[in-house]
Amino acid sequence: MRLRRALLRLFFRHLYTTLAWSYDAIAYLVSVGQWAAWVRAAVPAGTADPVLEIGHGPGHLLIELGGRAIGVDPSRQMSRLANRNLRRKEIEPRLVRARAQALPFRSASFGCLVSTFPAEFILEDRSIQEAWRVLRSGASAVIVGNAQIRGRSLPDRFAAWLFRVTGQYADLPPGWSEPFQRVGFQMARENVALPRSDVIRIIASKP
After folding, report:
1. Residue 122: what pLDDT?
2. What is the pLDDT of residue 166?
3. Which of 106, 111, 127, 147 has the most CB atoms within 10 Å of its CB?
4. Burial, 140: exposed, middle or buried (Cβ in 10 Å; 0-12, 13-18, 19+)?
5. 161 versus 186: which is more confidently predicted?
6. Is the peptide bond before 207 cis (omega within 30 degrees of 0)?
7. Furthest-apart CA pair in the chain: how many Å?
């Protein structure tokens, strides 16, 4: 188990940096073409501006938001990729290279925070404290952290098996809401049903 986790961390570290050029192709393959729909599930109806995306990756969610959002990512390679993708869509990039644990924004700056399939940093106390700080009262942090493929086609079943053997289908860990609640967030979990998969969406609301 420990070896598997270590190998996955190493793989994802390179996927977000030295292998960033292959991110879209790998995401498409492992999700059997569903990755874009999973990412869009991070934006519930009524999202308030301005929006902050943590871990913007190639910038596809920023494109969906039509330039309404600021994206944060520590990866230089992902920043270049997102910049190029946004400009191709004639959207002025609003990108900041920074870590979730040290956001370079004033307190109460954002009406919503979103993050899709973030790494383990999202559950770190400092990341949660920073999310609380930059959100306005009444705003929410929306995190898409898990997806489960339910399709019955052969490619879908193979992808579901691959997710299981790599541990990516693990449900939210016990006590997952406690770090958020300690800061003051009110927590909710939503299951978003898509045609061939289910997505787990976490809503952390700041009263």
Report:
1. 86
2. 64
3. 147
4. buried
5. 186
6. no
7. 49
What's the confidence (pLDDT) of residue 148? Answer: 86
CA distance linking residue 125 with residue 133, whole number of Å = 12
pLDDT the model gives residue 9: 67
Strands lying side by side in the sheet with 51-54: 95-96, 69-72, 51-54, 110-116, 135-149, 197-205, 186-194
**CB < 8 Å & 24+ apart, contacts of 121-128:** 122/54, 123/176, 123/179, 124/100, 124/179, 125/179, 125/182, 126/100, 126/101, 126/102, 127/54, 127/100, 127/101, 128/179, 128/180, 128/183, 128/185, 128/204
Nearest to 78 by CA among 119, 17, 121: 17
CA distances from 197 to 39, 154, 161, 190 (A): 13, 14, 14, 14
pLDDT of residue 51: 94
Structure tokens at 66: 């039509």
Helix (H) or strand (E) holding 128: helix 125-134
Q: What separation in angstroms does the CA of 179 have from each of 11, 124, 176?
A: 26, 8, 7
